Amino acid sequence: MPSLNENFNELVLRIQQGRELNHASFEPVYYLIFHPSQIIEVKRQVPAWTAALQKKGFDPVTFSIAEAIDDILQNDPRRKVWLEMDRKNPLKWEPANKSLANALTTPSKLQQGLEDALETAAAKTNGLVLVTDLEALHPYLRIGAIEGSIQGHFTVPAIFLYPGVRSGKTRLSFLGFYPEDGNYRSVHVGGDV
Q1: Which pLDDT band holds residue 68 (cuts at 50, 70, 90)?
Q2: In sequence order, which residues have a C-beta less than 8 Å from that of residue 185 and are 6 or more positions away?
Q3: 172 with 134: CB under 8 angstroms?
């Protein structure tokens, strides 16, 4: 089984070669898939991978899902209500998670953040977006929903660091326990079981 670095190098090579036009999509969307047990190792590799992208002539823009979620939830006017509800009933997770997911998706501030990162990268010569910390989406939503919503906006390559399990060419199980989803319109590297 290839290492994380070998898979990353293969992914960069595919970006350099460009995407072939096929039935699934023509947009430059790439997933580096790794087992959820490797989340910490991937976080350690991000600075080295960013430097490697720069050495290859790319000008990467990093978009951290965790930082975006934190920013959205910290600045939401409902924050005091959430904290009070949590203080009163800390084990009542379902309503709290629904409310937090709603804050991320209505309007889609998280999606807008990714679109802004794509715009920033598009303004650069050889811009590219590196999307990190996808695990922070649990339990609110999955990246496939966001990717599908902004189909048509990927004018520069986007690399999603995806913790999950892969089966076949397109079926992914987010974090290895969500049901498999085959609706991703992207190139997948890694995740071999």
Answers
A1: very high
A2: 24, 25, 27, 29, 147, 148, 151
A3: no
Tokens of 74: 């910290």
Q: How confident is the model at residue 153 (pLDDT cuts 50, 70, 90)?
A: confident
The residue type of 77 is P
Q: Do 63 and 117 contact (CB within 8 A), yes or no?
A: yes
Write down the pTM of the prediction. Answer: 0.88
Could you tell me the two tokens for 10? 């293969």
In order of 28, 121, 148, the CA distances from 129 in angstroms are 10, 6, 16
Calculate mean pLDDT across residues 84-110. Answer: 83
At 185 the three-state DSSP class reads coil
Q: Say how many C-beta atoms besides its own lie within 10 A of residue 77's C-beta.
A: 7
Q: Are 23 and 185 in contact (CB under 8 A)?
A: no
Element (H, E) at 99: helix 93-105
| Average pLDDT rounded to a whole number, residues 78-89 | 87
| 3-class secondary structure, 4 | helix
- Measured between alpha carbons, how far is 106 from 102 in angstroms, rounded to an integer? 6
**25 falls in which pLDDT band (50, 70, 90)?**
very low
Helix (H) or strand (E) holding 87: helix 79-88
DSSP-assigned states of every residue in 12-30: HHHHHH-PPP-SS--S-EE
